[in-house]
Amino acid sequence: MTSLTYVKGFIVDSVTGIRDEVDILLTDIKNEKSDHRHALIVGGAAGNFTVTGIDVGDKLDEVLLYHVTAGDLDSISDLTAEFTISALNTINNTLGTASTASKLLVRWTKA
């Protein structure tokens, strides 16, 4: 089973400053060999974040920080190396990068 989610975003050319609106396609793919999941959550101070459905033993594939200013997507940073799955429904990056006023896209594979 595959579910699709579209998210509006912006790409800004760093040279010209021209901003283009884009649709970002997020997918959940389930098959016999894998069970990929994703969640878009509100950022905050470094520490615990709730990610419903993630569990110890799952594989954390990616944590991306979406930097947003005045509703526009400015940049994306890969914070995967900072995070661990610390408990049921919880990821943690204590002493890591704060993501206040931003969004985190979390992708993982179920065990």
In short:
By secondary structure, this protein is mainly beta. 0% of the residues lie in helices and 58% in strands.
How is this structure best described in words?
The chain has 111 residues and is mostly beta strands. The chain has one domain (2-109). The protein is 0% helix and 58% strand. It has no helices and 9 strands. It has strands spanning 2-12, 19-29, 36-42, 48-50, 59-69, 72-78, 84-87, 90-92, 103-109. It has a 4-stranded antiparallel β-sheet with strand order 3-9-5-6, with no helix packed on it. Strands 4-8-7 form a 3-stranded antiparallel β-sheet, with no helix packed on it. A hairpin with a 2-residue loop joins strand 5 and strand 6 (72-78). The protein is elongated. The chain starts with a strand and ends with a strand.
List keywords for this structure.
mainly beta, 111 residues, 3-stranded antiparallel β-sheet
Helices and strands in order:
Elements: E1 2-12, E2 19-29, E3 36-42, E4 48-50, E5 59-69, E6 72-78, E7 84-87, E8 90-92, E9 103-109
Antiparallel strand pairs: 1-2, 3-9, 4-8, 5-6, 5-9, 7-8
